[in-house]
């Protein structure tokens, strides 16, 4: 998130660009790299959080598409990287439509360049905290039919909303908009009650002035009355992990089911739910 939406400021770190840097991307500035290097050097192992989350997102989109859902709204999508939502969905279902939402202007610029010739995918510059504005945008109205199932993707975005910004209310708004058979994917930083959690959360808050790690129960509450699908809300690397034989995407996690979890693996959880 960026509270100065509409202005690209190379001297102020951006959550989307820091995340891009941690994933090995090139759409970032020295100020973003400085923050990313803090995690790489001072909190060794924390970069695994970014990769574990991205891999879980790929598997989530894959399984949603396999279930027959063709429409996706990716809130707080960040900068384009390997295996974007529209690319993964297209591998598993014909006619997929994807709307990316982010309020970082550099995300908008790069996204529109990437998708210039793709009429079934678009990028909308908007704030996740203003869901009604997103719902009523021309591009969302053009691509998304709310009479048919929709997948709502909240990948590593709700932990950037403070409690007084009502993340539960944001999810609830969209749950009211989507019909039966729709699905909601959430990944979220998880309170671990340890020094690593406290250090990472403090860095996020001191850099961006926001951010809230949440407990397992608090993450579960974000789903409201939705039916949480197997395996429930678990560390992202354990959310429907692939074996080497099953993996067919560059960003899939391989062999995570059999390895011992690190403390960093446990600091981001993922879950998928269905609207009855």
Automatic annotation (TrEMBL):
Q: Which residues cross the membrane?
A: none
Q: Which Pfam families match?
A: Methyltransf_19
> What name does UniProt use for this protein?
SAM-dependent methyltransferase
What Gene3D superfamilies is this protein classified in?
Answer: Vaccinia Virus protein VP39
What keywords are assigned to this protein?
Answer: Methyltransferase, Transferase
Q: What is its EC number?
A: 2.1.1.-
Give GO terms: molecular function aspect only.
methyltransferase activity
Organism, per UniProt?
Nocardia carnea
Q: What class of enzyme is it?
A: transferase
């Amino acid at each position: 998130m960026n509270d100065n939406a509409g202005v690209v400021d190379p001297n102020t770190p951006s959550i989307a660009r820091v995340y891009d840097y941690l994933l090995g991307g090139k759409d970032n500035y020295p100020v973003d790299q400085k923050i990313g290097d803090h995690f790489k050097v001072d909190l060794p192992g924390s970069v695994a959080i970014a990769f574990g989350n991205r891999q879980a997102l790929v598997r989530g989109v894959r399984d949603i598409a396999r279930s027959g859902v063709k429409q996706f709204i990716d809130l707080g999508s960040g900068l384009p990287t390997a295996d974007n939502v529209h690319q993964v969905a297209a591998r598993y279902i014909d006619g997929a439509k994807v709307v990316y939402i982010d309020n970082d202007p550099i995300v908008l610029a790069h996204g529109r360049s990437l998708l210039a010739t793709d009429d079934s995918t678009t990028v909308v510059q908007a704030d996740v905290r203003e869901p009604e504005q997103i719902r009523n945008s021309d591009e969302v109205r053009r691509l998304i039919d709310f009479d048919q199932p929709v997948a709502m993707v909240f990948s590593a975005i709700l932990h950037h909303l403070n409690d007084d910004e009502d993340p539960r209310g944001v999810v609830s708004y969209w749950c009211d908009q989507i019909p039966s058979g729709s699905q909601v994917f959430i990944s979220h930083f998880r309170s671990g009650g340890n020094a690593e959690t406290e250090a990472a959360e403090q860095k996020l808050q001191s850099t961006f002035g926001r951010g809230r790690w949440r407990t397992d129960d608090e993450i579960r509450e974000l789903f409201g009355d939705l039916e949480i699908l197997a395996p429930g809300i678990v560390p992202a690397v354990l959310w429907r992990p692939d074996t080497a034989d099953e993996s067919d995407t560059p960003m899939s996690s391989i062999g995570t089911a059999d390895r011992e979890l690190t403390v960093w693996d446990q600091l981001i959880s993922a879950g998928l739910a269905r609207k009855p």
